[in-house]
Design goal:
homodimer; Rossmann fold; 3 domains
Chain lengths: 430, 430
């Protein structure tokens, strides 16, 4: 892992850290376009054919049955179910609080304006397959969608060679209230949810991360008016710590992020050269015996860095430019809260020594679907807002309208819209 | 204008009303791609060349000077300035209320999570040119951007053949606190704000509607990671009214929406056959002498309809399927508020006889940038949310983390992420 003083980085080193892993979406665009077009034209038949080719399994019934979900419950451990339910409870508590309404604003006497929240009626969730299983991600999308009242909640995931979906994923879906679950993965699943097939209903917005084909499919259906949650990329953490931080904690947190994949990133900025050295040594120590050690080592060698900086403001400036998905701040005294005030770009912030990023990943109640690769400059993480819209409502009295009558007159006239002026004037005629 | 009983519409008629005007973005994609690529490669030189070709004017200094803004103030009427400022005051009041913070949620003892709002640092606004002038739209984007604290706020608009921008537009920009104003329009302006040039700084998100070239340019730069406000299309209103509504008001409101352009739509759903007939007659009567009458007539003939329905729920069901940009509800008693509860898809709702849509367009304080063409199923109108992100923050005590330790353990283990487990366990070692 690169270890350096921040202001001794070469331009090339700095740029490599900032840039992180980039994926070449152009390369697969043509293939994905073809898959989407075929799903649109042929529906379920195309889904079955792609599932045969890509997942190596013949799926007759695309929809997961109630019996399959019951078998999934029977196969998971009581400890898993208890953990999942504690996570679901905390996620529900935090997201429920996001639903609080906005009060009515009287912008002037007799003019009342407010906003009402309305669920997006049809939403879809993609859950990736392969060797990894992510029940926690099912909760992160499923719970806010249910809380806000999305009427149709669909989930797609690629089946294993035996035609099944992982039991923890099915249990998580059921716990989150997702009733429509389908065995189809890849770009073809995104196409199915965007266009609809005989079996799978079309939705207005698609959530969830997958491989490059899935990511490109989401971009392509967006052009056709089906919105996506946010651009998804490799996971990352940036940690700001001073000499009071425990190097074991900092090392463990860098590693936990890096184990997501060889393209993940973990960056430490510290005012303490001692901590920098201790963290580097701790990473080596903690890697021993860890099953994901090769992935972690590759990720930290490629996209990781331990950077010593002169002061905390310098670290925050770097973090704001980096716009990390996860930002941990471990400083003495009230340094964490003071630093937070200066943070402009981050997906989620973890304050203090006992808020490791995996707490938010799993069970604290926060949402772990967050913008990556610098997109935190622009996007929020998932919340009830992602599954709903705010509709403006206004109600005016005759006097309220009278109070803005002259302004509407002059503005409509300036804009060359006499019928706009007329719509107000007609209300005061005679 | 089509007048019919709702359940006597042919499938073709119903589909034409629902579909509204569609634009063929494919047709101009190639040209727009070429413009964007040249702006990216050649910067200001490309902007000057396109401005020469498309706007017929040689612009040396792309940036609008302070002196030009001062001259604009000198040229507008006191009535205009007063109207603009009243609108700005009401818009500020309504949008300020949207900034209210979310309180800290304790999802479990010792686990605190909240969200902080952070402005998108760099935003750009496109203002269309041509014969029409839209100072009100400048307020709608400029005021929330300033309120939420976007650091860099850029505006681009195409210059007239004499090289000037319209005085009302410049005054509105100044009133809304936009300091960086540039004389460039069309797809080239979108490219300039997306990629940056020597003169025009790059932004993260582009707002504002324009012609088809502008709309396609916004879609194309989105693929490169520059977000857009929402897909923009022709304006529309859907009105639900019973026999108590004043036909003069309803006719005026249908017309005010239709005057935006020949592709605009105005649809009335009423439980009263008498009102239907009266509104049709009123439209003819009010069209006399109106400068925009030909546009209104064309729009209402193409995309307008007066539909008699059996009851209010039938009208609401149609409206929810239509997902109108503007929805007016004019019913007796507390019918307006009861109907609002059933509205799922609309950009903005106007309740009662004294809330004509132009009130919200100009001066009530609501935002008039709203989703069109059915996009209200999916998008909210502009608000402070459009110019900011919510960053999750969490802080845990040691006991708080201990309370979810077992859940993280089992979930991380299920997901094959041992370093995630380790990041928690290391905090309880020794």
């Amino acid at each position: 892992m690169l270890t350096s003083h921040l202001n001794q980085l070469t331009a090339e080193q700095r740029s490599r850290i900032m840039r992180r892993a980039e994926s070449d979406t152009e390369r697969v665009r043509g293939v994905v376009r073809e898959i989407l077009d075929r799903v649109r034209a042929e529906g379920d038949a195309a889904l079955r054919d792609y599932t045969r080719r890509f997942d190596g399994v013949e799926v007759q019934d695309l929809r997961v049955s109630e019996a399959e979900v019951e078998r999934a419950y029977a196969s998971v451990s009581p400890a898993f179910l208890h953990g999942l339910r504690q996570a679901a409870t905390n996620i529900t508590t935090f997201h429920q609080a996001q639903l609080e309404g906005q009060h009515v604003v009287e912008t002037a006497p007799g003019i009342h304006i407010w906003r009402v929240r309305r669920a997006i009626e049809r939403v879809g969730l993609y859950v990736p397959g392969g060797r990894k299983i992510y029940p926690s991600s099912v909760l992160m999308a499923g719970i806010p969608a249910r809380l806000v009242g999305c009427k149709l909640r669909v989930m797609c995931a690629p089946p294993a060679p035996d035609g099944s979906l992982p039991a923890p994923t099915l249990v998580a879906a059921k716990e989150a209230g997702i009733e429509h679950i389908y065995k189809v993965g890849g770009a073809q699943a995104i196409g199915a949810m965007a266009y609809g097939t005989e079996t799978i209903p079309a939705v207005y917005k698609v959530f969830g991360a997958g491989n490059l084909y899935v990511a490109v499919a989401k971009l392509l259906v967006r052009d056709a008016g089906v919105e996506l949650d946010m651009p998804a990329g490799p996971s990352e953490v940036l940690i700001i710590a001073d000499g009071t931080a425990d190097p074991r904690f900092v090392a463990a947190d860098l590693m936990s992020q890096a184990e997501h994949g060889e393209e993940s990133a973990g960056v430490l900025l510290t005012t303490s050269p001692e901590l920098a050295a201790q963290v580097a040594a701790e990473v080596e120590r903690q890697l021993v015996g860890l099953a994901t050690a090769p992935t972690i080592r590759k990720a930290l060698d490629s996209y990781g860095a331990i950077l010593v900086c002169t002061d905390v403001p310098e670290a925050i400036a770097f973090a704001n430019e980096y716009a990390p998905e996860h930002l941990e701040i471990i400083l003495a005294g009230d340094g964490n809260h003071l630093a937070l005030e200066q943070v402009t770009n981050a997906g989620a912030v973890f304050l203090g020594p006992y808020a490791p990023e995996p707490a938010g990943d799993y069970a604290s109640g926060s949402n772990h679907v967050l913008p990556t690769g610098g997109a935190a400059r622009l996007y929020s993480g998932l919340s009830v807002d992602s599954f709903s819209r705010m509709v403006e409502v206004q109600e005016l009295t005759r006097d309220g309208l009278a109070s803005i009558r002259a302004s509407i007159d002059v503005l409509a006239t300036t804009e060359g819209l006499p019928a706009h002026r007329n719509a107000v004037e007609v209300r005061f005629d005679g």
